[in-house]
Amino acid sequence: MKHLLSIEDLDRDDVERILDRAASFAEVSGREIKKVPALRGRTVVNLFYEASTRTSSSFDLAAKRLSADVENIRSTGSSVDKGESLKDTVQTLSAYDPAAIVIRSPRVGAADLVARWTPASVINAGDGKHEHPTQALLDVYTLRRRLGPLDGRRIWIVGDVMHSRVARSNVIAFTRMGARVTVAGPPTLLPRGVEALGCEVATTLDGLGEADVVYALRMQHERMSEAYVPSLREYIAHYQIDGRRLGPRQLLMHPGPVNRGVELSAEVIDSPQALIGEQVAAGVVVRMAVLFELLAGGGPSASARAKSSSVERAEPQPA
Amino acid sequence: MRTVASGDRSGAAPLVSKPAPVADLLVRGAWACDPREGIDGPLDLLVRGGEIAQLGAPGSVEAPRGAEVLDGERRHLLPGFVDPHVHLRVPGDEHEEDLDSGTRAAAAGGFVAVIAMPNTKPPVDSAPILRSLREAAAREARVPVGFLAAITRGQHGSALTDMAELRETGALGFSDDGVPVQGAGILRRALQYQRLCGGVLALHEEDPNLSGDGVMHEGEVSALLGMAGIPAVSESTMVARDAALAGYEDGRVHMLHLSAAESVEAVAAAKAAGAKITAEVCPHHLTLTHEEVRSLDTRMKMNPPLRSEEDRRALVAALRDGAIDCIATDHAPHAPEEKEAPFEEAPMGTTGLETAFAVLHSELVRPGVLSLATLVERMTAGARVYGLPAPRLAVGEPANLCLADLDADWTVGESGYESRSENCCFAGRTLSGRILLTVAAGTIAYRERALALVP
User: Fold this and answer.
1) Can you list the domains of chain A with their CATH numbers?
2) Three-state secondary structure along chain B?
3) Looking at the partner chain, which of B221, B224, B343 has a beta carbon nearest the beta carbon of A109?
4) pTM surpassing 0.95?
């Protein structure tokens, strides 16, 4: 596998292989010296055109724990500020011969374009409201640790589905792993045609009780001023996940950053049912596994596997 | 077509092109198809001094001294096409297209006249700009060009242009194409003022409140891609509104580039109610759908957007039964660096002059959806929208015709484009039907390199 541009690029076997490797990296992360030499001497460029804390810091840490050299570039303070086009920026960075470019962009399809313009491996760290494949992988990883296989599990994704790349990637990833997914939120924030993702659609939380997992999305304050919902009060009244709506057996997830008291009440954030901290921790090991998969001769892609059955697998060695 | 007067208050010739030697040629034994003349069979056609001088049974017409003779065997002779909607990018964006390259592209597609939209930089919203543009066309244009002027100053939608003066300077009509006339009040004023100055009001129908930040058709594909959608009702509600206004003021309107099934219904209803309304449709809306956008290829980004299969079928049906009057390319060249961007940032528009006939022949005529005669009628009917005579294969008419090889397969873009821009949504497709020769206003405007002469 050369790039990770969309969660659609991965079949179930690919996901399981990457997550198994992430689990072996988690074992390394428990040690005092958390580094493995897998990517020593290779360069990873993190190119972030959007504000990000979790994704950018975890890609940075993941690359460093694999002993890669890391260059972090943000749109502010770089020549992007001076109007350099994405193409010119990518071609400039490619001259440093990086092994991988990790790209976060506010534009749909930016990672695909970067992959066209660079010989490096490209990882999509979020393209507009389209996809966020590594988030989906770390969410599946987190859930597998708690629940085992996801087959037959019910997962509700609640909130601003329209503006969420996490919702799109996670519906695809969860259903691919055997779960049944419902997206729920205000009718104004459910895109027309969203059922094409392969999920059910609800406009109330009346059926939330069936969920094994409640995955809340970030509700941005701009959505009120844009008249997607009349007021914060109304949103909270109908869609906030609080102690009354969240059953005792249900697990709670959120991609962060949380708007405390908006999509989630304080009591559920701090409850033992919440996996939010585990998601963040999973971010590093899953991104290590993705970098390893693409750069250190991981398994072949689904299509390559169909052609050939003889596969050599490199396993990570502790430093 | 240059010499035709358009009536109303317009004193200037409606179409402008550069002077060129008139053609003397004999096409022998081509299969001629002209539904207006009831012609559908093989014949010889002689052009002398730029006029159609003689039609006759194959082998019956003698070549006069000095006339070029072309072998028409297994080839089709058609009235030249008229494109009522192109963007030639002059003035202001000559790096994307100019009057020479744009009319070269038109001729290569079999077009013998095009009508240029006024959303240039600056827009054609005053007589001096229109006058200088027509002067430039008289130096550079290879096929006759007609010009529309803006409805509102700067196309800002608030104040009318000097419509009467623009008509006298040669404007065929008025359009704020590129953007809609958002206010019903100002459009109503334009319809009232039309009684003084004439000229068709050509309307880009879109409600910006509904389009919002949309970059593609709103539907399953936009939901999957996470891109903001432009709903079909953004177009159809404005079509219905403006058809009602036109009916009320008894004004003459033309609906540009219809893309949605609901818009077709609105136009058909207005026609049934007796409104003076015509409509056009583009080749890409007749042959492609929003599924093409899955690739995020920015050549598939245009406004109005590629819509659903149901919309596409409704447009084809309306074109066939005449609810939609004519085909327009909405030829919209863009520079490569503009289109080489993420889909949401790329400008809207595709080129289309060089591919229109071949695309529609391949996708609609070959599969039996549309007859060749109907396609020819719809590709020439754009002239009538603006009160110009449609090209005809008839003795005494100026020679406006093209010779096509319907069995010639070619791949779009394989040997570049005549247009200065390459943003063609059909790039890479193999089409059947190639234009070999175009005679526009009596002059040879295009000749395929391989077109052999009969010694």
Assistant:
1) 7-129+282-300 (3.40.50.1370), 133-277 (3.40.50.1370)
2) CCCCCCCCCCCCCCCECCCCCCCCEEEEEEEEEECCCCEEEEEEEEEECCEEEEEECCCCCCCCCCCEEEECCCCEEEECEEEEEECCCCCCCCCCCCHHHHHHHHHHCCEEEEEECCCCCCCCCCHHHHHHHHHHHHHHCCCCEEEEECCEHHHCCCCECCHHHHHHHCEEEEECCCCCCCCHHHHHHHHHHHHHHCCEEEECCCCHHHHCCCCEECCHHHHHHCCCEECHHHHHHHHHHHHHHHHHHCCEEEECCCCCHHHHHHHHHHHHCCCEEEEEECHHHHHCCHHHHHHCCHHHCCCCCCCCHHHHHHHHHHHHHCCCCEECCCECCCCHHHHCCCCCCCCCCCECCCCHHHHHHHHHHCCCCCCHHHHHHHHHCHHHHCCCCCCCCCCCCECCEEEEEEEEEEECCCCCCCCCCCCECCCCCEEEEEEEEEEECCEEEEECCCCCCCC
3) B343
4) no
Q: Which residue of B has its CA nearest to A166?
A: B226
**Cβ of B232 under 8 Å from any chain A Cβ?**
no
Answer yes or no: do A105 and B342 touch at CB < 8 A. Answer: yes
How close does chain A come to B143, measured CA to CA in Å? 37
d(CA B403, CA B282): 22
B231 contacts in chain A (CB < 8 Å) = 192
Identity of the residue in A107, A168, A193 whose CB atom sits nearest the CB atom of B342: A107
Listed as ranges, residues in chain B with pLDDT below 50 are 1-9
Q: How far off is chain A from B342, nearest CA to CA, in Å?
A: 6
Q: In terms of CA atoms, which chain B residue is nearest residue A192?
A: B219
User: What DSSP letter does each residue of A38-105 carry, written as one string?
Assistant: TTTT-EEEEEESS--SHHHHHHHHHHHHTT-EEEEEESTTSTTTTT--HHHHHHHHHTT--SEEEEEE
Q: State the architecture of B79-385 in CATH terms.
A: Alpha-Beta Barrel (3.20)
* A191 to B337: CB separation less than 8 angstroms, yes or no: no
CA distance B239 to chain A (A): 23
Of B219, B223, B342, the CB nearest to A110: B342
From-to residues of CATH 3.20.20.140 in chain B:
79-385
Asked if B270 and B247 touch (Cβ cutoff 8 Å), the reply is: yes
Q: Determine how many CB atoms are found less than 10 A away from the CB of residue A80.
A: 17
- Residue B405 pairs in a beta bridge with B434
- Kindly state whether A317 is in contact with chain B, defined as any CB-CB distance less than 8 angstroms: no
Give me the residue from A108, A112, A196 closest to B227, CB to CB. Answer: A108
Residue B414 makes CB contacts below 8 A (sequence gap 6+) with none
Tell whether B310 lies on the interface with A, counting CB pairs under 8 A.
no
pLDDT in tens, chain A (319 residues): 999 999 999 999 999 999 999 999 998 888 888 889 999 999 999 999 998 889 999 999 999 999 999 999 988 766 666 668 889 999 999 999 999 999 999 999 999 999 999 999 999 999 999 999 999 999 999 999 999 999 999 999 999 999 999 999 999 999 999 999 999 999 999 999 999 999 999 999 999 999 999 999 999 877 777 889 999 999 999 999 999 999 999 999 999 999 999 999 999 999 999 999 999 999 999 999 999 999 997 554 444 444 444 334 444 444 4
Domain covering B25-77+398-447, topology: Urease, subunit C; domain 1 (2.30.40)
Which residues are A100's β-sheet partners? A44, A121
The pair of three-digit structure tokens given for residue B158, joined into one six-digit string:
């608030």
Residue-wise pLDDT for B90-99, tens only, equals 999 999 999 9
